[in-house]
Description:
Number of strands: 17
Structural class: alpha/beta
Number of helices: 19
Strand order of the largest sheet: 2-1-3-14-6
CATH class of the largest domain: Alpha Beta
Strand content: 5-15%
CATH superfamily of the largest domain: Periplasmic binding protein-like II
Largest sheet: 5 strands, mixed
Distance between the termini: 37 Å
Oligomer: single chain
Radius of gyration: 22 Å
CATH topology of the largest domain: D-Maltodextrin-Binding Protein, domain 2
CATH architecture of the largest domain: 3-Layer(aba) Sandwich
Shape: globular
Amino acid sequence: MSRTKAKVSKKLLLSGTGAILAAMFIISGCNSKDNAASSPSGSSEASQPASEASQAASPEDSGSETKDFVKLSWYMPKPIDSMKDQDTVEAEANKIISEKLNAELHLNLIDNAGWEDKMKLISAAGEPYDIVFTTFSSNRISDNVQKGALLPLDDLLQKYGQNILAKVDSRAWKAVTYNGKIMAIPAQTPYSPAGAHVFKKDMVEKYKFDYKNVKSIQDLEPFLAEIKKNEPDMIPLLATANGTASGVTLYDYTTISPGISYSEQDGKVVKILDVAQNKANYQTINDFYKKGYIAKDAAIKTDYLAEAKSGKYAVMRDSGGYTEDGSKSTATYGFPTVETLSGYPTISTNSMTSAASAISATSKNPERAMMLLDLIWGDKYLLNTLAYGVEGKNYTVKSGTVKDGNPTIEATSGSEQTWAIWHNWLGPLWDQWDSNWNSTAALEAMRKNNDNGKASGILGFIFNPESVKTEIAQVSAIQKEANPILTTGSMPDFEKYYTNLQKRLDDAGMDKILVEAQKQFDAWKSANS
């Protein structure tokens, strides 16, 4: 994947924009609650933090600040289930970290199912740790800021973050700035990640399906019907409790809060379930389910990636990014695929924080933690070792050498893959080595798309949920229950279910959330006009 791959499981499909869960399939200043944010400062200092970078000292020049050996911990969700080489990878990475920083890194990789709850427990207990993966939807930045779990990074960045300041897109600092303080480091990542329909190549060729002309989920019908009729051992369309067909997502709506989105076309804050096209798309999924194009037990399947890798589905969604030749999904799923673009979302605060790194307010060594992050942003070998693993074990070099900094490698994939951390979970995606994960050409295309992508009308707006947190909790609980039904279409009476869901959400406080979001948006718009 583009390393947004894991993208955090494409959560919040109910919102209509999908989470590009940095964070899991790909997937949040001060350390007191009084500093919970309502909006970014919008100041030049916050959006352009690199102004003093040239004057700051590098980690190697930090002298007495690294004289004491320290152990650093980094929490993140487990990128793949088959992570078996952690000791070997950490040993190789720590050769560099020890030499440069007199420190040692240990990665705490948490199973996806328990990731959110684990981090909540750690935070509530005040447990000391150093670095954590955080996004707009997974281990939420805003939630962590609100409860004082993260450390403000402005001073640390100026003193120890020169590589970071030089490489982070200056626009992205807005998305992680709360009450004038930078609370996380936004990764290099596709800000407008393309959605794509993915097809098993052998099935497309067998039935001569013109997949390139698929423009909507409705256009999938002829192919799905062909598979259903002629391939009894194959399921036409992959849908699970946390992932459905590409194209269900409304790319011109940007999520503000669960169930509440901003219409880029109309410039209005709306309830996403009230959008006619959103309803029509979910009704199509229900129609597909009733026709047997989707597995009958789809709503209880929770591992989209594992299902996709099984090879028993004819049509899937992208694996976290689109490539015209299908190479990205082919590498991820482990069998030949072809892809066709379904759309590009606008660049939003959420997409700029689909992967980010923060330093815990409980860290006993925040300076060394920042030095480590900066080292990863500056040392390609360290970055790619943490991401790909160890040469000869997790990847092979096809041309060049790792020492020259720009090799072409072949990373293990499928059942042979025993190590992976997506580059944007570590930070600098553009420093990724050319590989079957992402070619240099693909990375340049992503980077160009970031430069040229259309920014959301609410880029930089960060919703403060404090005054409606009870209503959001109630709405989120209903969504958690409803999402598997919506994404798989497994309701017996669509109209009755959808209408009842809208009413339940309204009774839970959706209108109050909408009013609060509109009020905050109006204030933000006025202040930033």
